[in-house]
Automatic annotation (TrEMBL):
<dbReference type="InterPro" id="IPR029320">
    <property type="entry name" value="Acyl-CoA_ox_N"/>
</dbReference>
<comment type="similarity">
    <text>Belongs to the acyl-CoA oxidase family.</text>
</comment>
<feature type="active site" description="Proton acceptor">
    <location>
        <position position="430"/>
    </location>
</feature>
<dbReference type="InterPro" id="IPR002655">
    <property type="entry name" value="Acyl-CoA_oxidase_C"/>
</dbReference>
<dbReference type="InterPro" id="IPR055060">
    <property type="entry name" value="ACOX_C_alpha1"/>
</dbReference>
<feature type="domain" description="Acyl-coenzyme A oxidase N-terminal">
    <location>
        <begin position="23"/>
        <end position="142"/>
    </location>
</feature>
<keyword id="KW-0576">Peroxisome</keyword>
<dbReference type="GO" id="GO:0003997">
    <property type="term" value="F:acyl-CoA oxidase activity"/>
</dbReference>
<dbReference type="GO" id="GO:0005504">
    <property type="term" value="F:fatty acid binding"/>
</dbReference>
<feature type="domain" description="Acyl-CoA oxidase C-alpha1">
    <location>
        <begin position="284"/>
        <end position="445"/>
    </location>
</feature>
<feature type="domain" description="Acyl-CoA oxidase C-terminal">
    <location>
        <begin position="479"/>
        <end position="658"/>
    </location>
</feature>
<dbReference type="GO" id="GO:0005777">
    <property type="term" value="C:peroxisome"/>
</dbReference>
<protein>
    <recommendedName>
        <fullName>Acyl-coenzyme A oxidase</fullName>
    </recommendedName>
</protein>
<dbReference type="GO" id="GO:0071949">
    <property type="term" value="F:FAD binding"/>
</dbReference>
<dbReference type="GO" id="GO:0033540">
    <property type="term" value="P:fatty acid beta-oxidation using acyl-CoA oxidase"/>
</dbReference>
<dbReference type="GO" id="GO:0055088">
    <property type="term" value="P:lipid homeostasis"/>
</dbReference>
<dbReference type="InterPro" id="IPR012258">
    <property type="entry name" value="Acyl-CoA_oxidase"/>
</dbReference>
């Protein structure tokens, strides 16, 4: 599509784009993280979208379960080959964002890239990396991360798979003792992978040392047949991600060499002696790494959905605002703006907090290299909180965008259903959100109770700021609104701690008291993480060196985000006195003004996300707005339309219709 050729474009969209009052390319660079990154993303995307190998012969939704898997594996393999062939040497982990949309509905190599390779990097010592890293990066071996079992996903300490050390032959014996110990869910495990990292309870010298990672060959490297002592299969259709072969795995006293235990952090020596890690949760490092990656991935899903919904809302006309006048664009309805524009604001919130979290992760990783684990708990808390809020915000945002497109949003060809199923899974995987938020709450209560002790953890230092509990602000700058979020979080933490303490004082055991307060504790964790997101949003926009137009747009989006979330949880702000009922009413009014200010810029802002049509894959969201023709053309692809009268008519309908004669 030639974006300079207005003649091919829907007139509403032409008019929308003429209203643009900022530099779109500049905003694109901010979204990508700099000009160089924009150029790199475009280069990769060009490479992919001009390649006919990535086209599907028929829409995926008409394919059988097996064909979907095979088709997506074909494209995934081609993608890996193509990127490997590039002279510039692409780093697939750096470029993962640019690939969004090229592979549809999950792909069988996703966990190889996003967990197996990172697990080797983060958990294997240098000799082990020497042995497996190069091979896995060159795709000579394909792996997955097999942790979850039929009986336990959340409770990692409760895993049942055993790795028992046998010092006589220096081997571990992997065993699945019960049906509930069957590994269940790992992506690519069913048919694709020939290796995996298995999390199993480590037993040596008669003692259990808890879950540890082991690298295990699953299939013969020549024939791809599963090895003796290993049972493998696929778990069947899911809500989404059906091109992936999520699998199951059982071990029958399967032996692996001692050196297959990933030994960067803890070791089992030849004689069976266990050597402790620096921190006993370092074996959870792969999960933490991926949680950080998920925040960025969620912002991308939301960019897709909101691009579709915004463009469609500009093209779609319905009903009337002024009686008797032509039907307006649905984007002119305030209620439609309230659905779509806060989701645009949310995209930037997620981008900026993902970047901030990545920086923290890099500095914690650097410290870990020097043996310093002091900031690991803070990273665990922040990555858990942001993974939880980003996945639930993005899932809800995508669903709102789908609803905002009315009936057509329910069509597969809108690409909204698949965007939704590809996002909502992140609420569950890599740590179910409630569980992760309760980890954040645990950290908050612990931090609150250790006020006065220097921990170096900056994200919770505000908990010591007791004076702010008394001071509600009378100004409404963005900074003041962020302070209100802080006050709300602090007050919820104080309330939860007091409630916990009271129950303990009344004689309850701490863990019962904890469960009894857990709805409130969940709220604390959400409020704390929301405060973090708001603070990063405000600080990033405030310090941004940008042209006036771009800065104004981002300031408005940031303010909308702050007010939107205050109105969603206004009870918490009222309860702690951070805001009065009158303040809330004024802010609600201002939110509507902001929707009106941002409405004329909405199409241009989503244009700045710069998602090529080929990747957006939506009849409703294409750049030219030629929605109705595309919907019609897609409908014609239905196999039912191959004949005027389907066979099923003769088999079932005709006999029914004639039976009463
Ligand atoms: C060039 C290379 C670059 C590389 C770049 C790489 C880029 C990567 C790119 C990525 C792209 C993304 C694209 C998306 C694709 C994704 C596909 C994914 C598919 C999905 C995969 C999965 O789905 S895979 C399974 C995930 N399955 C879980 O996620 C289980 C949750 N369950 C738990 O995670 C534990 O079960 C749970 C609850 C903590 C309790 O653990 P537990 O019982 O052992 O611990 P307790 O609760 O008793 O807590 C005791 C104390 O440990 C503290 N603590 C706990 N964890 C800690 C930790 N990690 N660090 C520090 N401290 C920790 C805690 O804070 C307490 O501290 P304190 O005592 O001081 O209060
Ligand atoms: C699409 C997809 C891909 C996946 N890929 C992989 C993979 O590659 N590798 C892998 O190992 N796993 C994978 N998983 C598994 C995933 O990590 C687990 O499903 C996830 O960790 C949740 O665990 P669970 O299913 O046991 O849920 P459960 O823990 O049984 O959760 C059920 C309910 O119980 C609640 N609950 C549980 N514990 C607590 C608690 N302590 N406090 C309060 N409430 C609690 C939860 O909040 C939830 O409401 C995948 C899952 C999905 C959906």
């Amino acid at each position: 599509m030639d974006k300079n050729n207005e003649r091919e474009c829907n007139e509403d969209l032409i008019r929308e784009r003429r209203k643009c009052n900022f530099n779109i390319e500049e905003l694109t660079n901010i979204v990508d993280g700099g000009k160089a990154r924009t150029a790199r993303r475009r280069e990769i995307q060009r490479l992919l979208i001009n390649d006919p190998e990535f086209l599907d012969e028929i829409p995926q939704d008409y394919m059988s379960h097996e064909d979907r898997y095979s088709n997506e594996l074909r494209k995934s393999a081609h993608l890996m080959q193509k990127l490997a062939d590039q002279e510039s040497g692409h780093d697939i982990h750096q470029d993962i964002g640019a690939l969004t949309g090229i592979l549809k509905d999950g792909n069988p190599l996703m966990v190889h890239l996003s967990m197996f390779i990172p697990a080797i990097l983060g958990q294997a010592n240098s000799e082990q990396q020497e042995k497996w890293l190069g091979r896995s990066l060159r795709n000579e071996i394909i792996g997955t991360y097999a942790q979850t079992e039929l009986g336990h996903g959340t409770f990692v300490r409760g895993l049942e798979t055993r790795a028992t050390y046998d010092p006589t032959v220096e081997e571990f014996v992997l065993h699945t003792p019960t049906i509930t110990a069957t590994k269940w869910w790992p992506g690519g495990l069913g048919k694709t992978c020939n290796y995996c990292v298995v999390m199993a309870q480590l037993y040596t010298q008669g003692r259990c040392y808890g879950p540890h990672p082991f690298i295990v060959q699953l299939r013969d490297e020549e024939t791809h047949r599963s090895l003796p002592g290993i049972t493998l299969g696929e778990i069947g259709p899911r809500l989404g991600l059906n091109s992936n072969d999520n699998g199951f795995l059982k071990f029958e006293n399967h032996r692996i060499p001692r050196t297959n235990m990933l030994m960067k952090h803890s070791q089992v020596l030849k004689d069976g002696t266990y050597v402790k890690p620096l921190h006993n949760k370092l074996s959870y490092g792969t999960m933490m790494l991926v949680r950080v990656g998920i925040v960025g991935a969620c912002s991308r899903s939301l960019q897709y959905a909101v691009t579709i919904a915004t463009r469609y809302s500009a093209v779609r006309h319905q009903s009337e605002i002024v009686p008797g006048q032509p039907e307006p664009q649905i984007l002119d309805y305030q209620t439609q703006q309230y659905k779509v524009i806060p989701q645009i604001a949310s995209v930037f919130a997620l981008i900026f907090s993902a970047r901030s979290l990545s920086k923290i992760q890099s500095s914690v990783t650097a410290k870990l290299k020097d043996g310093n684990t002091d900031l690991l708990p803070e990273l665990h808390s922040l990555s858990s909180g942001l993974k939880a809020l980003s996945s639930s915000d993005a899932s809800w945002g995508v669903e709102v965008c789908r609803l905002a497109c009315g009936g057509h949003g329910y069509l597969a060809s809108s690409n909204l259903p698949r965007t939704y199923t590809g996002t909502t899974c992140a609420i569950t995987y890599e740590g179910e959100n409630t569980v992760l938020l309760l980890q954040v709450a645990r950290y908050l209560i612990k931090s609150y109770r250790s006020i006065g002790k220097e921990t170096g953890a900056s994200s919770v230092s505000y908990l010591a700021d007791q004076t702010s509990l008394a001071s509600s602000s009378s100004s409404f700058s963005n900074k003041a609104l962020v302070q209100a979020f802080k006050l709300s979080a602090l007050s919820l933490v104080a309330e939860a701690e007091a409630r916990l303490q009271k129950l303990c004082d009344m004689g309850q055991e701490f863990y019962h008291a904890w469960n009894y307060c857990s709805v409130l504790l969940l709220k604390c964790a959400e409020a704390h993480t929301r405060y973090y997101i708001c603070e990063k949003y405000e600080q990033t926009v405030d310090s941004l060196k940008a042209s006036e137009g771009v800065k104004n747009v981002l300031q408005s989006l940031c303010r909308l985000y702050l007010i939107y979330h205050i109105t969603l949880t206004h009870g918490d702000f009222l309860k702690c006195g951070a805001l009065t009922p009158r303040n809330i009413a004024v802010l609600e009014g201002e939110m509507c003004d902001l929707l009106a200010v941002l409405r004329p810029q909405a199409v241009s802002i989503v244009d700045a996300f710069d998602i090529p049509d080929e990747l957006l894959g939506s009849t409703l969201g294409c750049w030219d707005g030629n929605v109705y023709q595309r919907l019609y053309d897609e409908a014609l692809k239905s196999p039912l339309n191959k004949t005027d009268v389907p066979d099923a008519y003769y088999k079932y309908l005709l006999p029914l219709m004639k039976s009463s004669l």
